[in-house]
Amino acid sequence: MDPALAPKTPSHSPSHSRLGLFLVRALLVAQSAIVLTGGAVRLTQSGLGCPTWPECAPGSFLPSPHQAEDPLNIWIEFINRLLTFVLFAIALAVVIWVLKSRRRDLRTLAALQVLGILGQGVVGGITVLTKLHPAAVGSHFILSIALIGGAVALVERSKGYPGRGDLNATAPIARNLVRALLILGALVITMGIVVTGSGPHAGDTTAPRFGFEIRTVAWIHADLVIAFVGLLIGYMLILHFAPVVNDQVLLATRKAHAWRIFAITLAQGAIGYIQYFTGVPELLVMAHLLGAVTLWSVLVRHGLRVRAFSRVAPSPSISV
């Protein structure tokens, strides 16, 4: 917690109830987990374990003993579909809590989670009906990343951020750098989707591929990662040597967050290079997927803490 931006105390206690915070955190965990289970579906070649949608097999919403698909692939895909209902139930519980707590600032975020999950169902259906076309699979992942970002925002706002501290505590140049990191991070993820859509793990042996030369798109992806690292180092240098934060305790917190992002980025980059040069083994692909979700979550959290997309005037005590 940023000491200099301590969460404001709401006038209605339900907004800070343990139940509410538990629910929004559970939503964030569930949104992240379903990305990993989706990755498991793809890596085990189970993407067409249920070859139709919304049914699992023609004429049945449940797995059928008469399906031609391997039973293990069927159940991996079917369980992943069932987890969507768990996620949807958590999102509905969050909406109910938000309405009861009268937190108007959370209503849009909570509603978008429900709508996004419904959208995921539609995109998932398109993915199956197009036989796992990489554009559909990639859209599925991009929507998940957006929902994870929204869930992070729900957690942060439920805890009371932004707080009562100086809203101009961070100079515009620092906020602009964090904004650029978020945009570049989204581009890195998007290019990673292109690499995945051109690689060997399609989710099924018959699934189409983008057809790009894997070395070329992997290089572009790596170049974007290098640019991200360079921009992140620039941000860290600004924090260390320029008067961009007007509170020393808050500055120390910002530095700690930046170092955390840097460490996760280096680990994620290392996994990416190792998996590329070792033939993209499944375990490393799953680790890379986990790293992407983790890095995006902490980056969005940091962006919210520094008010990267807020329009606030610079503080008189900040000259940069």
In short:
The chain has 320 residues and is mainly alpha-helical. It is built from eight helices and no strands.
User: Which word captures the global form?
Assistant: flat
The biggest beta sheet reads: none
Overall radius of gyration: 21 Å
Question: Which class do the helix and strand fractions yield?
Answer: mainly alpha
Weakly predicted, low-confidence segments: 1-11, 313-320
What is the residue-averaged pLDDT?
Answer: 88
Count the beta strands.
0
How do the SSEs run, as a string of H and E?
HHHHHHHH
Beta-sheet strand percentage? Answer: under 5%
N- and C-termini, Cα separation: 25 Å
Number of domains: 2
Helix content: 55-70%
Query: What kind of oligomer do you see?
Result: single chain
What is the helix tally?
8
Commentary on this structure:
The structure is a single chain. This protein is mostly helical and 320 residues long. The protein contains 8 helices and no strands. Helix 1 runs antiparallel to helix 8. The relative contact order is 0.14.
